[in-house]
Design a protein that fits this description.
The complex is a heterodimer of chains A (348) and B (446).
Chain A: H1 9-54, H2 63-95, H3 109-116, H4 118-149, H5 155-163, H6 170-180, H7 192-199, H8 213-239, H9 243-251, H10 256-284, H11 288-293, H12 303-313, H13 317-347
Helix pairs in contact in A: 2-13, 3-13, 4-8, 4-10, 5-8, 6-8, 8-10, 10-13, 12-13
Chain B: H1 2-28, E1 54-59, H2 63-72, H3 74-80, E2 83-88, H4 92-101, E3 108-111, H5 114-122, H6 131-140, H7 143-146, E4 150-151, E5 154-155, E6 158-164, E7 167-170, H8 172-178, H9 186-198, E8 202-204, H10 216-230, H11 232-239, H12 248-261, H13 276-279, H14 288-291, E9 294-298, E10 320-323, E11 333-344, H15 349-358, H16 361-370, H17 388-398, E12 402-406, H18 408-411, H19 414-429, H20 434-444
Parallel strand pairs in B: 1-2, 1-3, 8-9, 11-12
Antiparallel strand pairs in B: 3-11, 4-5, 6-11, 7-9, 7-10
Classes of the chains: A mainly alpha (348), B alpha/beta (446).
Chain lengths: 348, 446
């Protein structure tokens, strides 16, 4: 294909706008962060000079001023939080009590729909399976791997190998694994899994069609991506265990097993909690993998995909919002647990 | 130090602001000059007077098809000075609602689902078509077509392109070699299928995988069979929920489609068993016909674009299509099809001019000449349609005996037509029984 510069010109123009806008925003921010503090500093300087010149005692730095500065820096964040998070959350909650085009109130109808419709109950069960298995499996794999490769000879290489999938997007990973599970009716199997089955003398299967096995096969994808994250965080935590504790334990003659349970585990508990919590929230929100691999067909649907379908594809705003609120409610306890833990650590 | 740094930052910001301002000015005035007096512009006489105005169009049409669109109204733009800005999106159905509800509606949208069109009419977003547009539409389209964009007696959109779905693709070459003849009745179709199956080839191939629209090709099957077993009246009742989705008449049609679709002896040539239909993409579902692993594939006229490169689509070529035979000849010649409607979210005069133009004979002939496109527009000259399958489609659409019906899943509420019906068909192919599937879909239609 010939590359026609003139025909592609609008795209370049758009690209240029994007770049300019980017530079503009970043430049503006830099300006804000640079000029404003400088202005405050200059005023202080001037006042100091004036004070020294007139011989009066130095004015004391007043507390309220600090509050003003803090507010100044917090304001953009608060504003964005309000516009981007608080308002939409309230609006979604309101919409979940309204009908499909958000024109009249229907009370709890959308929520009773949530728990009475068979296909939606299936969605909730699937999400439960996901949130139980993914954090557990990913953390377990990550932990075992981190312990095993710790101080091994090729630690860096071994770690990057398992960390690599983290660099692949969920959609990309789902497409890769779709090939692994692929099925061909006749001729050679192009899917890795079916090829293994065939070479072991088995019959090829349509893996992604078999419920409930398919949900577990999709979970494998998520674990494959997230185990690397768990491994990196936990490995860092293991390395941070004070050497004297390890040494003392060694002198006391602990077995590797005791070492793991008595020393390593208690020491990395905070990191472990962070990993499990992060993974739980990520799993509850899982959308891309299911949408790409099966589109929620064959009984593999989860809350986030169904929420998108209901709200944007079926124009059922009420149903979609109810699912969103439900998801939100599920995430809250995990977040509260996380915050309480952080607080305890800080105090302790 | 502090002075120097802040001055520097100010200078940077100033330059940036200046740059933004300059580029904003630079693009503001690429106004097209009108060539209204040129001889080829005579046909656009009635659209004059909107020089320099801009009309935005939003659709699901992308890539090469979008380039063809731009080409098709090029002359109109040059002559009238109206700048048509078309944007295609793969997420059109989901994004249109977001844009309209967000106050960022396009001037015109090509909506392929009358159900979606009705939703925007109900929420008061789509403007009723202007008097000129209405006159043009009534002159060029049959009432059968216009009723899909008519709500409460008012017209809210004009038909644009169309397709014919009641086709079975086959290989004329293979049929000739094997001595098979094109069936003209349902019984002949089944007899031929049995004959091919007995010879050791799977007679049919199908695929319903289509990303987040997976399932739609199977809904077309059901609709086509229902039209043939029950006729257009029952079909109309079914698509408007006048009879329940799981009515015995519908169940009967689903089972009849199942005698082909869920028949392990017939399915799925080149791909495996019946279940492989669910995971075979609709784009590649017909390809085994070119290698002789499958004999027949029921799919719409637009499948002509999906054949591997170098495949000759013609009555004496590698592949061609025949009309999906009638079950009961007394029920007439039903044809299932679809198309898109041009609806306006703004009623500025230039928007109405473009809407009128898109319903005109000048436009459809201009677009058809570029290729791979057809319309139910009566002004469409069949000689301007290059593709033989499209020619056949135009003949069928212009045949007064034809009873055209729109794709039912596009008429139903999106939660059913683009939701549970699609998903239900996937489950049905994957082994669920007809009653369970139909009951489930009926339960979701509220």
């Amino acid at each position: 294909m010939e590359f026609d510069f003139a025909a592609e010109q609008p795209k370049f123009l758009m690209l240029m706008y994007g770049l300019i806008a980017f530079v503009g925003v970043v430049g503006g921010l830099l300006l804000l962060l640079d000029v404003v503090p400088a202005w405050f500093a200059r005023r202080r300087e001037e006042r100091l000079v004036a004070a020294v010149a007139s011989g009066t005692p130095l004015p004391r730095r007043r507390k309220p001023r600090e509050g003003v500065i803090a507010l100044f820096f917090l304001l953009p964040t608060l504003l964005f939080l309000l516009v981007g998070l608080v308002v939409p959350a309230i609006r979604t909650t309101l919409l979940s009590f309204m009908d499909k085009d958000s024109s009249s109130w229907v009370g709890l109808a959308n929520y009773s729909w949530l728990f009475s419709e068979d296909s939606i109950v299936r969605v909730l069960i699937n999400s439960l399976i996901w949130v139980l298995l993914v954090p557990l499996a990913a953390t377990a794999f990550g932990l075992i791997y981190a312990v095993l490769v710790d101080k091994a000879r090729f630690e860096a290489v071994a770690k990057s190998l398992i960390f690599l999938p983290m660099a692949i997007s969920f959609v990309g990973a789902a497409i890769i694994w779709k090939f692994v599970y692929a099925y061909r009716g006749d001729g050679d199997q192009i899917g890795l899994l079916n090829q293994i089955v065939v070479s072991l003398g088995g019959e090829p299967k349509q893996w992604l069609l078999e419920s409930p096995l398919n949900t577990f096969l999709l979970i494998v994808i998520m674990v494959w991506i997230q185990a690397g994250f768990a491994m990196v965080v936990l490995s860092a935590a293991i390395k941070a265990i004070p050497a004297d504790i390890v040494e003392a334990a060694r002198l006391d003659g602990v077995s590797p097993w005791q070492m793991f349970w008595q020393i390593t585990m208690p020491s990395i508990r905070p990191a472990l909690i962070v990993v499990v919590v992060t993974l739980s929230i990520a799993t509850l929100k899982v959308f891309d993998i299911v949408r790409t691999a099966t589109n929620g067909n064959y009984d593999t649907n989860v809350i986030a995909t169904e929420m998108y379908n209901q709200a944007f594809r079926y124009q059922e705003n009420g149903h979609g919002s109810a699912l969103a609120v439900f998801l939100f409610v599920l995430v809250i306890p995990i977040v509260i647990y996380q915050i309480r833990n952080l607080r305890q650590q800080r105090e302790g | 130090m502090a002075f120097a740094r802040s001055r520097q930052a100010l200078a940077i910001a100033g330059v940036l602001g200046l740059a933004l301002g300059v580029t904003a000015c630079g693009t503001g005035n690429d106004k097209k000059s009108s060539n209204a007096s040129k001889p080829e512009c005579a046909a656009y006489e009635k659209y004059q007077g909107h020089d320099g105005k801009k009309v935005t169009i939003y659709s699901s049409i992308r890539d090469i098809e979008a380039d063809r669109l731009d080409q098709s109204w090029k002359q109109f733009e040059d002559c009238t000075g109206i700048d048509i800005d078309h944007e295609g999106s793969g997420e059109f159905e989901a994004q249109l609602g977001v844009r309209v509800d967000g106050g960022n509606a396009p001037d015109l949208a090509f909506i392929p689902q009358p159900g979606l069109l009705k939703r925007f009419v109900d929420s008061g977003k789509i403007k009723e078509v202007g008097a000129d547009t209405k006159a043009m539409a009534e002159q060029n389209f049959t009432p059968d077509w216009l009723k899909y964009s008519t709500v409460n007696g008012k017209l809210y959109g004009v038909p644009l392109g169309s397709n014919v779905k009641s086709y079975v693709w086959y290989s004329p070459k293979t049929f000739k070699d094997k001595g098979w003849s094109v069936p003209t009745t349902w019984d002949e179709l089944i007899a031929l299928s049995d004959k091919i199956a007995a010879s050791g080839t799977k007679p049919w191939c199908a695929g319903i995988e289509s990303g987040d629209a997976t399932g739609w090709p199977a809904t077309d099957w059901i609709e086509d069979v229902l039209l043939r077993t029950q006729g257009v009246e029952v079909y109309d009742q079914w698509t408007t929920h006048g009879i329940p989705f799981n009515d015995p008449k519908v169940a009967d049609a689903v089972d009849k489609a199942g005698t082909i679709l869920k028949n392990e002896k017939y399915m799925n040539g080149g791909f495996g068993g019946v279940k492989s239909i669910a995971t075979t993409s609709f784009q590649e579902a017909g390809t085994p016909i070119t290698t002789g692993k499958c004999a027949m594939h029921r799919q719409a006229s637009f499948y002509a674009n999906q054949w591997p490169e170098g495949t000759k689509v013609a009555e004496d070529g590698d592949v061609f299509a025949f009309y999906f035979p009638a079950v009961d000849p007394s029920k007439g010649k039903p044809v299932l099809g679809a198309g898109e409607f041009v609806s306006a979210f703004a009623d500025r005069p230039e928007v109405q001019a473009v809407q009128t133009y898109l319903a005109s004979g000048e436009y459809v002939n201009s677009r058809a000449k570029i290729g791979d496109w057809l319309s139910a527009n009566k002004k469409l000259d069949i000689n301007n349609v290059p593709n033989p399958v499209d020619k056949l489609s135009v003949q069928i659409l212009q045949d007064p005996k034809t009873e055209f019906r729109f794709d039912g899943s596009d008429l139903m509420p999106a939660a059913v037509g683009a939701g549970t019906f699609w998903k239900g068909m996937v489950d049905w192919i994957n082994g669920k029984d007809t009653t369970t599937v139909l009951n489930g879909i009926e339960g979701s239609w509220k």
